[in-house]
Amino acid sequence: MPSRETCWKKGFSLTTIYDIAKRAGVSSATVSKVLNGYPDVNRETRARVEAITQELGYKQNAVARGLATKRSMTIGVFFRDHANSGLRHPFFADVLASFKDVIGVAGYDLLFFANNAPDNVHSGYEDRARHRNVDGLLLLGVWRTDPGLEAISRSSIPCLSVDLDLLGPRASYLVSDNVDGAKKAVDYLVQCGHTRIAFVGDRFSTKPGHDRLVGYQQGLEHNGLLFRHEWVLDGDFTEEGGRFAMERMLELPDLPTAIFFAGDMMAIGGMELLKQRGYVIPEDFSIIGFDDIVMSSHLSPALTTIRQKRGEMGTRAAQELLELIHKPGKPPSGVVVDVELVARETVRIVCADSSSSLASSDFFEKSGQACDVDAVEQVCVTHSAEE
Question: For tag attachment on the chain, is the N or C end more exposed, with fewer CB atoms within 10 Å?
Fold first, then answer.
């Protein structure tokens, strides 16, 4: 076995907590308390131990620390990506980035679980989390119908799910205000003169899809518009799902003038299909999405959408999970993050009692203000007179 001098020369460190304790004139138990953040050590002793630890270049072994604190300092992440985009996912990538930053500052690392684990190993969320001894779990992209959710909802493992209303003794969730966002989308279309508004989205498998449908229905009711079941089509939040839904919609004998897609990727797929069929956006169909992914502002025309605050979602998800980990008595909660409308170029203004219409971008050039009912009426009157 190499000597301490040999190890030092080769860049190794054999310093132990016993060496630190001897230099500081305290017990090894006191050193352990200081290193693991226990509060019951006086300020002077803590400062002396920390100074000697730094002087000796001591690096605490993660396994040893885990044994002392009964924590692994890792957060497990289950990411179900139904679009097969991996960590390049246009929505969850940004949520994960801000989540990672907050978790990292708190001293935790992330452990990503593979989706294609062999059948002969631990398979459920709870089993795999316990097998890896993670301190908490983050669930992303998991559908309500997933059979593994029941066990984890009853588990003692702190768990935070995004876009999934999973509640349990140690399970909280975080979502955007999807209902209000959908209502904002419908209200905006109505303010721009539309009364024939369709919906494309997932209705049952995910909380965002269900809530956005509810918001769409509430928006119609609030504006005195009838709900037409033939104008509500299924979509799976993918580009291909948007294309397929748009194909089915074009087969209808009575078409809407505006379509609210419950996700930007579906809106992009629908817009591509319309362009291939020779339609012009927004002259033939007005389109509004949900998410405000980076791509949305770079489309031609740029997509009007509802913005989810992805950075804030990741930050607040991390804060909630850390509280669940460090405060065992904390009651679970549902965290809701507000959303906002981003008006761009895919919604036209329809003028009542006239064949005239304006792209919303033209409207903003003429009015210089947000699209509200009175302003739209004034612009329509002016535009009609110009014709």
Answer: N
The CATH number assigned to the domain with range 178-308+340-344 reads 3.40.50.2300
Its CATH architecture, for the domain 74-176+311-337, is: 3-Layer(aba) Sandwich (3.40)
Residue at token pair 């009426």: 377
Contact 216, 260 (CB under 8 A): yes
Whole-number average pLDDT of the chain:
84
List of residues 6+ apart from 174 with CB closer than 8 A: 160, 161, 162, 163, 313, 316, 317, 320, 334, 335, 336, 337
What's the token pair of residue 70? 């009964």
Q: What is the pTM of this model?
A: 0.77
Cα gap 340→180, rounded to integer Å: 9
Calculate the alpha carbon distances from 79 to 52, 76, 144, 336, 344 in Å. Answer: 42, 10, 14, 20, 31
User: What is the CATH number that goes with domain 4-69?
Assistant: 1.10.260.40
Q: Report whether pLDDT(4) > 50.
A: no
Percent of the chain with pLDDT over 70: 80
Neighbours of 117 (CB within 10 A): 11
Rounded distance between C-alpha atoms, residue 247 and residue 277, angstroms: 10
Rounded mean pLDDT, 189-218? 94
Question: What pLDDT does residue 367 have?
Answer: 35
Q: Which amino acid is at 199?
A: F
- The pLDDT of residue 3 is 45
Residues 110, 74 contacting (CB under 8 angstroms)? yes
Domains 4-69 and 74-176+311-337 equal at CATH topology level: no
Place of tokens 């316990």: 130
- The residue-averaged pLDDT of 27-51 equals 85
Q: Is 100 helix (H, G, I), strand (E, B) or coil?
A: helix
Where do the structural domains in the chain lie, given as residue ranges? 4-69, 74-176+311-337, 178-308+340-344, 351-387
What's the CA gap between 284 and 310, in Å, rounded? 32
Helices and strands (H, E) in the chain, number of each type: 15, 14
Residue 378: count other Cβ atoms within 10 Å of its Cβ: 12
